[in-house]
Amino acid sequence: MTTSIESRTTLTNGVKMPWLGLGVFNMVAENEVEEAVKSAISTGYRSIDTAASYNNEEGVGRAIRDCGVPREELFITTKVWNSDHGYNAALSAFEASRKRLGVEYIDLYLVHWPVKGKYVETWKALEKLYQDGSVRAIGVSNFQTHHLEDIMAVGNVVPMVNQVEFHPLLAQQQLRKFCKSHRIQLEAWSPLMHGRLDEPLLREIASNYGKTPAQVVLRWDLQNEVVTIPKSSNPERLKENAAIFDFALSDEDMAKLNAMDCSRRFGADPDNFNF
């Protein structure tokens, strides 16, 4: 399944999505995102996850044009921001993102947050983009089960991906079960808990495998069948994050890591955010 950085999961419509990608949240310093994306691609990454709200789509676009890898080998994700919810607004936001990225199509387009009273209409816009062939796959981000049920009740397409905060302290077990039962691929943002990796259990398990706590967490993601997109602009850290395909966690260690779950969020609550 996940034997190399080239390993991909297959979404419900047959599109293949890399298990490991690069997240570029908060990369806004001059040339930071361009250098990070180029370094990641040269390391073997093929999936880049950005968003309109990250204000770095243009830099991502320059990097993927200059990286020397054919566009069709790359998997580019971006997202519609909260201020662009609604059918027509979302369609316009997509065109703006596509223009900033400088691409003919986007591989995965997501609704960034479930803005109350608006996300169902926005989902209909994403369905239109999918039907028109402007995007290869559509999905959501930060959706709880009840949000997913809302759009599935009226939509024609079940979200192919749900990108959520996911890590050993927030294992989203009920949401994972729901997504799996509906063949919605779960994807982890902030898999490394904003760098809070100094947990004794993580250090102990990492030591046993000759790996770092970060590598253990990312491997845990994969073995839970969750796509993961750790963020880093450091070339050595990019290589470290990608070195997770040469070992496997035992069932016992997976169980220990699963038991760390305490519903601890480092990001916003999808049922209570104000942006």
TrEMBL record:
| Gene3D superfamilies reported in the protein's UniProt record | NADP-dependent oxidoreductase domain (3.20.20.100)
**UniProt signal peptide:** none
At the top level, the lineage of the source is Bacteria
Q: Which InterPro entries match?
A: AKR (IPR020471), AKR5G (IPR044500), Aldo/ket_reductase_CS (IPR018170), NAD(P)_OxRdtase_dom_sf (IPR036812), NADP_OxRdtase_dom (IPR023210)
Q: Give the record's keywords alphabetically.
A: NADP, Oxidoreductase
- Residues forming the NADP-dependent oxidoreductase domain are 27-260
Q: Which PANTHER family match?
A: 2,5-DIKETO-D-GLUCONIC ACID REDUCTASE, NADP-DEPENDENT OXIDOREDUCTASE DOMAIN-CONTAINING PROTEIN
Q: Which family does it belong to?
A: Belongs to the aldo/keto reductase family.
Q: Which protein, by its recorded name, is this?
A: Aldo/keto reductase
Tell me the organism: Paenibacillus mendelii
